[in-house]
Amino acid sequence: MIGAILQENDLHFAKQFGQNFLIDENIVTKIAEASDVGPEDTVLEVGPGLGTLTRELAARAGQVYTVEIDKKLIPVLMGTLSDLPNVGLINADILKLDFQKLLADEKSVKIAANLPYYITTPVIMGFLESDIPFSRMTFLVQKEVGERLCAVPGTKAYGALSIAAQYYADIEPEFNVPAGVFMPKPKVDSVVISLTKKTVEGPEHKTDKKLFLKLVKAGFANRRKTLINSLSQNSGYPKETLLQALDAAEISPGIRAEKLTAADFARLTDAVINLEQAGRQQ
């Protein structure tokens, strides 16, 4: 079907957009089911391709807004989705779209996307850091990215993205997706992951969010180096201040960031804040 549509419209895969279209209807249905979409939901879909997942989502949701960056696909999508009155097609770059304005009046928002590798992190973090009232996001991503999002401390995949994403949401892998169900076939397998808005808060939510995330990114910026060296090179704080903060937080300066939990970074954040406050009082 996809091959016929491409040939009929003289379309070619756009490498700059990382296009890999799903050609397995069973996988498409499974993604729609994992999205847990109902009639009360408004869905924002990123990268509809030729609209196969869009149709599945539209059959379940009250409203679907689907965002496609490739202008050449818009006429095709207008045709394949023309019989769906609850689908709004938007030709835009999701990284530049004011999706907060688009969804400002919506009460129940769910997000679904087949994300190209090159925009995966900024798109996911953009959604998480926004004020969109989402309850669930379902993404098809490269397996490596899925592993990083779900990773726990002490593992190779664990990093700043793991902590930052898990700060906002509970993340679960849904199912693996082999490379053979895409056209063109990518070099790696993929995974579907779900992100559910976090309801139980940890110590990281009781400290300064901006500083917490800043220290997390600084700690992992040079992940092969010790924590103190990575922090001192990337956080903007003097090494002596950081050593005092690490001591107060009972964290070894010689440890690597990958060994630290979000709670550890929260204690470090609090310690830095306390030192700053003490300095201002002198």
Shape: elongated
DSSP strand content = 15-25%
Beta strand count: 9
SS summary, helix count? 12
Structural class: alpha/beta
By CATH, the topology of the largest domain is Rossmann fold
At the first level of CATH, the class of the largest domain is Alpha Beta
Gross CATH architecture of the largest domain: 3-Layer(aba) Sandwich
Spatial arrangement of strands, main beta sheet: 4-3-2-5-6-9-7
Mean pLDDT over all positions: 90
- In sequence order, what are the helices and strands, one letter per element? HEHEHEHEHEHEHHEEEHHHH
Short description:
With 282 residues, the protein is α/β, with parallel strands linked by helices. Helix 8 (160-168) runs antiparallel to helix 9 (209-221) and helix 9 crosses helix 12 (262-281).
Write a concise keyword list for the protein shown above.
9 strands, single chain, two-stranded antiparallel sheet, 2 domains, elongated, 7-stranded mixed sheet, Helicase, Ruva Protein, domain 3, Rossmann fold, alpha/beta, 282 residues
Description:
Strand 2, helix 3 and strand 3 form a beta-alpha-beta unit. It is built from 12 helices and 9 strands. It has 2 domains: 199 residues, Rossmann fold, CATH 3.40.50; 78 residues, rRNA adenine dimethylase, C-terminal domain (Helicase, Ruva Protein, domain 3, Orthogonal Bundle), CATH 1.10.8.100. The protein is an alpha/beta fold. Helix content is 40%, strand content 18%. The N and C termini lie far apart (72 Å). The radius of gyration is 21 Å and the shape is elongated. Strands 4-3-2-5-6-9-7 form a 7-stranded mixed β-sheet. It has a two-stranded antiparallel sheet with strand order 1-8. The model has no long low-confidence stretch (mean pLDDT 90).
